[in-house]
From TrEMBL:
The lineage of its organism: Bacteria, Bacillati, Actinomycetota, Actinomycetes, Actinopolysporales. It comes from Actinopolyspora saharensis. It comes from the Bacteria. One of its GO terms (molecular function) is sodium:proton antiporter activity. It is a multi-pass membrane protein. This is Multisubunit sodium/proton antiporter, MrpF subunit.
């Protein structure tokens, strides 16, 4: 079972690096917002995989709160950018 967790962590790390590249080299603001949201989602997923590996669910509320805050932040930033674009 440890192999499955190792492969999962590896794939999450590769996806995290790719989303960081997109965050740094994104063409527009919305691309960067989406890349940051994906990166935060990958961090939450890695935390959940770690909880599964250790068989300890004590951080599940923290992961859920962090994911919710990331979602609210992404939606707020997207609306702000949308309002700026419509005023031009």
């Amino acid at each position: 079972m440890g192999v499955v967790f190792s492969v999962t962590f590896g794939m999450l790390c590769v996806a995290g690096l790719l989303s960081l590249v997109r965050l740094l080299r994104g063409r527009g603001t919305l691309d960067r917002i989406v890349a940051l949201d994906v990166f935060i989602t990958l961090i939450v997923a890695a935390t959940c995989v770690d909880m599964g590996l250790n068989r300890d669910g004590s951080n599940i509320a923290l992961a859920a709160a962090f994911a919710l805050l990331a979602f609210i932040g992404s939606v707020s930033a997207a609306r702000l950018v949308e309002r700026r674009e419509s005023h031009r």
